[in-house]
Design a protein that fits this description.
- By secondary structure, this protein is an alpha/beta fold.
- It folds into three domains: 6-87, Winged helix-like DNA-binding domain superfamily/Winged helix DNA-binding domain (Arc Repressor Mutant, subunit A), CATH 1.10.10.10; 93-112 and 379-489, Aspartate Aminotransferase, domain 1, CATH 3.90.1150; 120-376, Type I PLP-dependent aspartate aminotransferase-like (Major domain) (Aspartate Aminotransferase, domain 2).
- The protein is 40% helix and 12% strand.
- The strands form four sheets. The chain has a seven-stranded mixed β-sheet with strand order 4-10-9-8-7-5-6, with helices on both faces. It has a three-stranded antiparallel β-sheet with strand order 11-14-13, with helices on one face.
- α6 crosses α13, α8 (174-185) runs parallel beside α9 (200-208) and α10 packs parallel to α11.
- The longest helix has 26 residues, at 375-400.
- The two termini are 30 Å apart.
- 45% of the residues are buried.
């Protein structure tokens, strides 16, 4: 489809004549059509005067609707060429939630980001003491500080994947690691397989590389190995991005049999797999030594079936690249991540990173190295906090929104919730007027799918989550009425 006519838009939008303000109702209807895929992206919209005549409204009304769609990022207009449907670019908006840092007063439930552990202050103090001896050098180490690479390698080995320090490249966060690996391996037109739903910024990276995105559906129950193998074979995917450990947003955990099957399929199709292990250390089913073990699992909770091996343990021909991060286990503000691959590929990646940055900050690397020395202590603290917050969020949702469906994941930090009715995007906008930023399902899909889903993280304190649920209930029951914040303020970014 290259263009859509005025009569088609009027029929699809079906805006009641009594809707007020009409221009906003029209803009909301067109945006929903774009998100649902009824009007594809990069399709020319009818001229304002033609649509106004068809709808029986003034041209000023349609102009206002088009202006609002352009402001939100759903229309791209050029002088003399008309207006074309689009999807928003979060970087182009003045109200990017990642730039607000919570100062706008909203509960930041769009971000699955836990606070720093109590040991951070002590680790930072020790890192500052370590810093002077590093200050005698130039401070640039493209591979990362040996002290940190040794600790990361040792942790992989302890988890069952023998690793040498030369197989580790320290990056400036996991997003930097993902960008480095994908931009090295995938170019314009190359097929890249991703889960659907998936981490939204993985889609961003693939698109920036010009890759052709190949989605394969999963649910909270996990992956179907035959569907993944079929998608790899039919698409001839050059790269696949998977999150087998407490997948974001579903929380699913890939079992050993599926890991082995996916690894075998990748070998047969000559596909490199990028394994995102950002949440891998946060298995909430592990027993808490400070609490007695429950006699039976909570209802609707994924039952633990034994410890799974790291995905890289199934790699027999160096086609897997593992991505790790300090952000979920410790703190996102440290901006330290890493890549694990063959030593030869790590050297290629280190050279490739020079086009983006030369090396990661020395002080932050020293802090993370010190936190590795406190791994079990800080990990236990994080697990206790996530367990408490998860229990609070689950209880609040079951009491206040019992028709919403979800499965409690074994680990990670998010619930993937299916709404009983309505649009998650509409709910997210209404919730913004009630003081909560939400992450609707289309953020995690390709081309506006997953409209009936919502990702809810349990990385905030229990009291905050209880308040957030109350505000979500108010937003669902009463829409945007009573709020003084414009619904336009929410943008698709997570």
């Amino acid at each position: 489809m290259r263009y859509v006519g005025a009569a088609q838009v009027a029929r699809l939008a079906d805006v009641p004549p009594a809707a007020r303000p009409y221009y906003r109702a029209l803009a909301d209807a067109v945006r929903a059509l774009i998100l649902d895929g009824h009007i594809p992206v990069r399709v020319r919209m009818p001229a304002e005067r033609h649509l106004a005549a068809t709808l029986g409204v003034s041209r000023t009304t349609v102009t206002a609707a088009y202006d609002l769609l352009r402001e939100r990022g759903y229309l791209d207009s050029r002088q003399g060429s008309g207006s074309w449907t689009a999807l928003p670019d979060p970087a182009s908006t003045d109200d990017n939630p990642w730039l607000s840092t919570g100062r706008d007063g909203l509960i930041q439930l769009h971000a699955a980001a836990p606070p720093a552990p109590s040991a951070l202050r002590e680790a930072m103090a020790e890192a500052v003491e370590d810093l002077p001896r590093y200050g005698m050098g130039h401070g640039y180490d493209p591979m990362g500080l040996p002290a940190l690479r040794e600790r990361v390698a040792a942790r992989y080995t302890a988890r069952g994947l023998a690793t040498r320090p030369e197989q580790i490249l320290v990056t400036t966060g996991s997003q930097h690691a993902l960008h480095l690996a994908m931009s090295l391996l995938a170019g314009p037109g190359d097929p890249v397989l991703v889960e659907s739903p998936t981490y939204t910024h993985a889609i961003d990276v693939a698109r920036r590389c010009g890759a052709r995105i190949v989605p394969v559906g999963i649910s909270h129950e996990g992956w179907q190995a035959d569907l993944v193998a079929c998608a790899l074979r039919q698409s001839a995917a050059r790269v696949a991005y998977l999150m087998p450990d407490f997948q974001n947003p579903t929380g699913a955990l890939m079992d050993d049999a599926t890991r082995a099957a996916v690894a075998g399929a990748a070998r047969r199709t000559d596909t490199t797999i990028l394994i995102d292990e950002t949440w891998a250390e946060l298995d909430l089913s592990e027993p808490d030594p400070s609490e007695p073990a429950p006699s039976e699992p909570a209802p609707h909770t994924a039952v633990r079936s034994g410890t799974v091996a790291p995905m890289g343990a199934f790699d027999s021909d160096n086609r897997m690249i593992s991505i790790g991060s300090a952000s979920k286990l410790w703190w996102g503000g440290l901006r330290i991540g890493w890549l694990r691959a063959s030593a030869a590929l790590i050297r290629r990646l280190a050279v490739h990173r020079a086009a983006v940055d030369i090396a990661s900050p020395v002080l932050e690397q020293l802090v993370v190295a010190r936190l590795f020395d406190r791994l079990e202590e800080t990990r236990a603290e994080r697990l206790r906090g996530l367990r408490a917050s998860r229990a609070t969020l689950v209880a609040a949702l079951r009491e206040r929104l019992p028709a919403w469906e979800f499965t409690v994941p074994r680990g990670g930090g998010t619930l993937w919730v299916r709404l009983d009715s309505g649009s998650a995007v509409t709910l997210a906008e209404a919730a913004a007027t009630r003081g909560v930023r939400l992450a609707p399902g289309p953020w995690f899909g390709v081309d506006g799918t997953l409209e009936g889903y919502l990702r809810l993280p349990y990385t905030l304190p229990p009291a905050v989550l209880e308040e957030a649920v109350e505000r979500i209930v108010a937003a669902r029951d009463h829409g945007s009425a009573g709020g003084d914040r414009p619904a336009d303020s929410l943008v698709p970014m997570v």
